[in-house]
Amino acid sequence: MFQTATNYAQKVDYVMLYIIGISFILLLIITISMIYFVIKYNRKKHPIASQIEGNKTIEIIWIVVPVVLVLTMFFYSYGVFKEARIVPPGALNVKVEAKMWAWKFYYENGKVTDTLFIPAGKPVKFTIVATDVNHSFYIPAFRIKEDAVPGRENYMVVHPKEIGSFDIACAEYCGMNHSIMYTKVYVVPEKEFSEWLQGKVDENYLRRYVASHTGGYKDYLTGSYAILFAKGCVQCHNIDNRKGIGPSFVELQRGFANVKINGKDTAVVIDKNYIRESIINPNLHIVKGYEKISMPSSVNILKEDELNYIVDLLYSNFVKNKQ
Ligand code: HEC
Ligand SMILES: [Cu+2]
User: Fold this and answer.
1) Which residues are CB-contacts of 94 (< 8 A; sequence separation ≥ 6)?
2) Is residue 138 included in any domain, yes or no?
3) Which residue ranges have their beta carbon within 6 Å of ligand 1?
4) What pTM was estimated for this model as a whole?
5) Are 259 and 268 in contact (CB under 8 A)?
6) Which of 225, 244, 278, 306 has the most C-beta neighbours closer than 10 Å?
């Protein structure tokens, strides 16, 4: 129902459910007995009130029962809260800086970004600071919210488990543009994350990775598009309909390709053969509007059966899906 992108998000929801559940039952009991007493001890039926001196049993019950209930709420939620507070060894450190009206993220190796990138399956410790006024670092899908206060360092630990992009909001009114103080967190596999951290791929690669990949980490390794990731095709071709260095694979559904062959504009039918030629002999026909950057590595990196698989994959998933 709600996105739960950390390993304790679900537990936080259960705590909420527990507390709301108990509150709701108490609300029912109290409301029903109130109505019952209003009717039963109506002034018309009992014109003269009788005095009650007290009742030890009832007093003990209404002290002990709420105390026990509140204590179960406390210990139940404390058990979950601890997970966001105990920093496991080997956690990745990211400094979160809030200021009017933007976020900045500082990584251990000195990288700085406006959008947050973190690896899935690894604990991350956010050190949260503010440079001007009070803000609050809020990621609903992670179920974390922690104030960013000038002159003070707060922290929060998350264990992201799901590949995806999620909203980051400021949850503390901080002036004029508080309402647009949004950014995103991209959770990517550890491999992609460290490649990015080392400068081998750029932010857009991670964004594309997440955009074209919705099924979670497992799908990345086993899903049908995995090979396009493994062979690096997605560095230039998106699986959704955004343009990259090359045309998005979705564009294959146009059926015909306007290409230049030997410098002459020609329209050719997009069939398996066209796809195969585009991959193994990219300079044969250049798609109009794109550079003649060939895909130099394709021939070397694809074995014959991989090539066949990719041709079938692109043909059946994209070309036939004519809208
Ligand atoms: C370095 C960037 C780059 C990489 C990596 C790359 N391509 Fe391309 N690709 C392009 C460009 C640019 C074009 C368009 C120009 C052309 O036709 O040569 C293109 C064209 C294509 C086309 C024709 C698209 C159309 O809409 O007509 C196909 C199919 C294709 N590539 C498949 C692949 C596959 C499969 C891989 C991975 C094995 C791959 N590409 C890797 C840059 C790349
Ligand atoms: Cu703010």
Assistant:
1) 105, 106, 107, 108, 116, 118, 124, 125, 126, 127
2) yes
3) 231-233, 235-237, 245-247, 251-252, 257, 275, 278-279, 282, 286-287, 290-291, 293, 295, 298, 302, 310, 314
4) 0.57
5) yes
6) 278
- Domain residues for the domain of 310 are 224-319
Residue 188 DSSP SS3: strand
Per the DSSP assignment, residues forming a β-bridge with 266 are 259
CA–CA gap between residue 320 and residue 323 (Å, rounded) = 9
Is 104 contained in some domain?
yes
For residue 252, report the distance from its CA to the centre of ligand 1, in Å.
Answer: 11
pLDDT for the residue 323: 36
Q: Which chain residues have CB less than 5 Å from ligand 2, an ion? A: 135, 170, 174, 181
Q: Considering 170, 193, 216, which residue would you say is the last residue of a domain? A: 193
* Residue 139 CB neighbours (<10 A): 24
Contacts of 62 (CB under 8 A, 6+ apart): none
- pLDDT computed for residue 212 by the predictor: 66
Contact, 212 vs 237, CB < 8 A?
no
Residue 52: what are its φ and ψ, rounded to 5°? Answer: -115, 135
pLDDT < 70: residue spans in the chain: 1-2, 211-224, 241, 293-300, 320-323
